[in-house]
Amino acid sequence: MELLVEARAIASTCWKDLLVFFRYPLRTLSLVVEPFLFFVPFIIFGAMFAQDGSAAGLAAFVGVADYASFVVTGALFWNFVSAIFWGIGLSLREEMVQGTLELAWTTPARRFSLLLGRTVAHLITTIITTGLMGLGFTLLFGYRWLGGNLPLAMTTLLLSLVTLYGLGFVFAGVVLWLKEPYAIANVSRIVLGLLCGWLYPITVLPEWLQPLSLALPLTYAIDLLRAALLGTRTLLPLSWELVILGFSAALCPAVGYLLFRWLERHSRTSGTLGQY
Questions:
Q1: Which of 61, 166, 213, 229 is the most exposed place for a label (fewest CB within 10 A)?
Q2: What is the enclosing helix (H) or strand (E) of 110?
Q3: What is the pLDDT of residue 146?
């Protein structure tokens, strides 16, 4: 019976977020168009250094000369990172502004169920927006998004999503604690994007930055996804990267949720949970 109650809480939270998402069609459209237009200039810029769509410099680093597909793969994955990693926390911020967060928190449902409902909703909307972006990139630039080793790509994506949800729990806790997430989200997007190599191979970074890149699980997620879909060379042996990503997927959700609960308890005991 308790499992049924929690399942209803997850489904209701997910359905509520989906209703809000589709209630504002212009906002929904902007989530597809804005990142799409953001990445297009990088692809066009790369055309200046390519000949007939082939970039010899890129091939020297990763073994593949298709610069457009290289950039688009990173762009589509980064759309997942942005929507899931930061999206859960930012949606909590919206609940604070609307004054509904404390009402949700006083229901008998577990905190985990309420958070899980949001993550499922974000996953559904991210699949829709990323799929539409991929379609646009395919039509304009001939992106080869259905080629390569699809089982490896799906395994990589699944492990990456689990890891991202763990990191998203931490950011959600920070939102409850600090109340102002936008500055943190903007800065962390830039820093993580710089270190993970979503637009370029990390081997072009200064040598002192590369160890920081190799310490991040998202670096291996992007690297494995490109290897699976495009056939690029991986930074480490492929099996090693899968083990690292699998370890991150096993560790991040548990640690992330524990940190979220600790920060959430701090907000409740200090009486600042509903403040903004």
A1: 61
A2: none
A3: 56
- 27 CA to centre of own chain: 19
Question: What's the confidence (pLDDT) of residue 275?
Answer: 61
| Cα–chain center distance at 21 | 18
Residue 14, strand partner residues: none
Q: What is the DSSP letter of 179?
A: S
- pTM of the predicted model, to two decimals? 0.82
As a whole number of angstroms, the distance between CA 29 and CA 35 comes to 11
Structure token digits, residue 251: 């560790």
Cβ proximity of 197 and 213 under 8 Å: yes
Q: What whole-number distance in Å separates Cα of residue 58 and Cα of residue 204?
A: 10
Proportion of the chain above pLDDT 70, given as a percent: 86
Task: Decide if 218 contacts 191 (C-beta within 8 A).
Answer: no
Give the best-scoring range by mean pLDDT among 34-48, 114-128, 161-175, 249-263.
249-263
- What are residue 54's phi and psi, to 5 degrees? -115, 125
- Each residue's pLDDT tens digit, 228-267: 888 888 888 988 999 999 999 999 888 888 888 888 777 7
Strand-pair partners of 66: 54
Mind giving me the DSSP string for 92-160?
HHHHHHHT-HHHHHTSSS-HHHHHHHHHHHHHHHHHHHHHHHHHHHHHHH---TT-S-HHHHHHHHHHH
Structure tokens at 275: 């403040």
**Helix (H) or strand (E) run with residue 106 in it:** none
Is residue 210 within 8 Å of 202, Cβ to Cβ?
yes
CB atoms < 10 A from the CB of 263, how many?
Answer: 19
Task: Of 66-80, 99-113, 164-178, 192-206, give the lowest mean pLDDT range.
Answer: 99-113
Q: Which residues pair with 54 in a beta bridge?
A: 51, 66
Q: How many angstroms separate the CA atoms of 143 and 145, rounded?
A: 6
**Dihedral (CA of 201, 171, 246, 73) sign:** negative
